[in-house]
Design a protein that fits this description.
By secondary structure, this protein is mainly α. Helix content is 80%, strand content 0%. α2 runs antiparallel to α3, α2 crosses α8 and α3 packs antiparallel against α8.
Length: 204
């Protein structure tokens, strides 16, 4: 693998990592509601999920889905239902008041935040499609293990940086104050968008 090919893979994945989706939505909301540090742990979970998808794609996930399309269909249904469930939780708890006075208090543990990010990304077939159809195309056959390791590190860092940046942007005082005042509408908007993403994933 050449450095040019590595750079192309890095750039393509950076665009994918920064594009709006369930993971970005989740880190944004976590940054607003639970602060930057909790959002970072969600970002780390998202990043590990992306690495899992990348490894699967590099070692034949796309071939498996090609020969067993029912498996991909079932996975899309399960992933879509999971995202819809999260959306329902947001919607149903939207009217509950949230005390944001203690800035920086963490409502969930690091392990819980990490699991949320990991499961959110693993439940979303979009990364599977990206890594299986786009990312793998930038990796020449016979790429050595050191290059593959470098690619996986790159994927992890891209995801952490992009999602942590989103969590940071939404963790500042101004967005948090706005969220406190408009919690019901914001939570239901986030939940509605996430539900639509879940329906789209399950239906396509």
């Amino acid at each position: 693998m050449t450095f040019a090919a590595f750079t192309a893979a890095w750039f393509l994945h950076l665009i994918a990592a920064a594009s709006p989706g369930p993971a970005v939505l989740m880190t944004a909301r976590t940054g607003m509601t639970e602060g930057f540090l909790t959002g970072v742990w969600v970002a780390v979970g998202v990043a590990l999920g992306a690495v899992v998808w990348a490894i699967a794609a590099l070692f034949g996930l796309a071939v498996l889905f090609k020969f067993a399309p029912a498996l991909l269909w079932g996975y899309k249904i399960a992933g879509g239902l999971f995202l819809i469930w999260i959306a329902w939780q947001m919607w149903s708890h939207a009217t509950e008041p949230l005390d944001m006075a203690a800035t920086g208090d963490v409502a969930r543990s690091r392990a819980s935040a990490f699991r949320l990010g990991l499961v959110t990304n693993l439940a979303n077939p979009k990364p599977a499609v990206f890594f299986g159809a786009v990312f793998v195309g930038t990796v020449p056959p016979g790429t050595s293990l050191p290059w593959i390791a470098a690619l996986l590190v790159m994927v992890f860092l891209n995801e952490v940086i992009c999602n942590a940046a989103v969590a940071r942007a939404f963790s500042f005082d101004a967005p948090r104050r706005i969220y406190t005042r408009l919690k019901t509408g914001i939570d239901r908007s986030f939940g509605g968008i996430l539900a639509l993403l879940g329906v789209k994933i399950a239906a396509t």
